[in-house]
Amino acid sequence: QGISWNTVRYMIGEVQYGGRVTDDYDKRLLNCFARVWFNENMFDSTFCFYTGYKIPVCKTLEQYFEYIQLLPAMDSPEVFGLHPNADITYQRNTSADVLDTITNIQPKESGTGSGETREAVVYRLAEDMLEKLPPDYVKSRLVKMGHLNSMNIFLRQEIDRMQKVITIVRNTLNDLRLAIEGTIVMSEASKANLLQNLRDALDNMYDARIPQVWRRASWDSSTLGFWFTELLERNAQLSTWIFEGRPKVFWITGFFNPQGFLTAMKQEATRAHKDWALDKVEIHNEVLKQTREEITASPSEGVYIYGLYLEGAGWDRRRSILVESTPKVLFVQLPVLHMFAVDSS
């Protein structure tokens, strides 16, 4: 009677492999592959799962073993229907894990050689960061801008969170300098917690990582240098907004609450149109062909934003469509986006 392909597909797609798949869409994809591959056509001479991967026609067990030995030891991402860049991402993540493990197991004691000690390196770094750290915000400027405006309310919330980060960083760096000098004064109640935070800050700053107390109050980043540079850039955007007026293009990934920014824009559009209801307003977007530097004026309605990236796809700026990723290019920056509100009622 031949092979019962329905049975084969069920055993593979629902039992042997399908029993380990928890996502409904993944199981649907697995069953789709089973229907495409497991049928009478798979024994055709032209059939192959991928270039170089086909069912061998052998007469002895030894010939099958020889064929298996000729298969690549490492399969390329294309075999699984993935882009070649997937292998770059895998190798990068693996390398990062290895380097993190090596860093974590290094001894944390002070250096005893002729080189600079850990404390001296961190002390110099703390002084440099304190010198570049921006000053506290002047809240009186917000009152003059109009504290009932939707965008200004959002700006106040962002400034409050940024001020918290700046204060934590400044206090940690000052305490760290005093601790290295041996002149810090602590109460018994705060001694244990402060010592733990300072030890964490010393170890992480020496390894170019972000101290935990900073990360909890701010955002994630790959290294301490990138994190501190982003702090300065975020502060620059907020300070420019306060002292020089509303930016023509907003760096949306530089906000703590990007969704709140879009909500404030939607509220602003609703107030500008008296016959609009807030619960009927939707946010739409249009990807422009201009870059940030080419924008010379704010839009008549809505906002211009930048700072968004594509992963797993490319962007054809001329045709304004998604395209396949370019080999060895993992991330592609989108041009400026025009975000605006429309009435859906």
From TrEMBL:
Domain Dynein heavy chain AAA lid: 3-86
Protein name: DYH8 protein
Highest taxon of the lineage: Eukaryota
GO molecular function annotations of the record: dynein intermediate chain binding; dynein light intermediate chain binding
Single GO BP term: microtubule-based movement
Occurrences of domain Dynein heavy chain C-terminal (ranges): 93-343
Short name of one Pfam family: Dynein_C
CC annotations in GO: dynein complex
